[in-house]
Design brief:
3 helices, about 15% helix, Rossmann fold, alpha/beta, about 160 residues, globular, seven-stranded mixed β-sheet, 7 strands
Length: about 160
Amino acid sequence: MKDKFILDACCGGRCFWFDKKQKNTLFIDVRKEKKGFAKERPNFEINPDRVMDFTNLKFKDGSFKLVVWDPPHIIRLGNKSWMSQRYGMLGKNWEIMLKKGFEECFRVLEDHGILIFKWSEAEISIKRVLDLFHTKPLFGHTTGRAGKTKWMCFMKIPRGRKIK
């Protein structure tokens, strides 16, 4: 797995990737769905390299240089809606799920590794989410038509060291 030094911890349909088969990236998701599973988008599929839950990553500590994490952000829509089919849904214990997911993404990063985190404030504010994490982002950017999509960059700083 030496050539796979990037992890997409919740790849879904790989929508924001320019190269959806990026050779240095290991794409994982909690589910696999064939084309046609969503009537609204007949060519959309969820085809991870491995089926795996981001709250329980089966990798050694420090396995990746870069982790991309775009977890589900929906809690209110029905399971049959296009949005929930495309992005997945958070459960009732979403706070625990996101906290554990962040911890796992950080665990598998090497020291000074980078975590790129994407969040949509469609239902839950970024402040509520960031309050769950043990570290603050270095920087971020707001995108989307309504400015609800947030991109953030975190760095794994080795214990005992600080960014000055």
